[in-house]
Amino acid sequence: LEEIKATLLALDLQQLNFMGGEPTSCPDLPEMLRFGKHELGVRTMLGHTTAWRLPLENLDAANVSLKAFSNEKHLEYTGKPAEPAYANFRRGFEAGIEMKASCVYIPGFIDREEIRGMLEYLAGLSPAIPFHIMGYIPIPGTPWQRPTDDQMREMVEFAKGYLETVTFSHL
What we know:
The protein contains six helices and six strands, in the order αβαββααβαβαβ.
């Protein structure tokens, strides 16, 4: 940890991003957030998180990967209930953390109704919350298909009916 801090002190940084796996599971994260905010004087951000440990002290921004909205689908997809992720997203938002959200669009699984739940939840907090939709990339052994270009366009337009900033990636 001290070697990482020394390396960071030698750089000219404006922001410190934490990514990889679930960053909130790292026991050193609270100290690194404190270090970034108070010793480096930079903006701190979680690049991708499931929101399981939000809010965090000294965290400026978080990009939360929402998996599903309904508890049934969330349990099937992650093995965990949906409610803590959404409650923690709200807590982070209410704590003043700059919150962004994303999801993977999987036609026939995480589809329009699941994404509608996410969008309604986010819009209820603020229609200004940025939302990114990623098109599913098939993994061998899974039954799901990649969304077509038309399906992606339709989903993005649908999401824009709820939130002001909707982006997407689709390989």
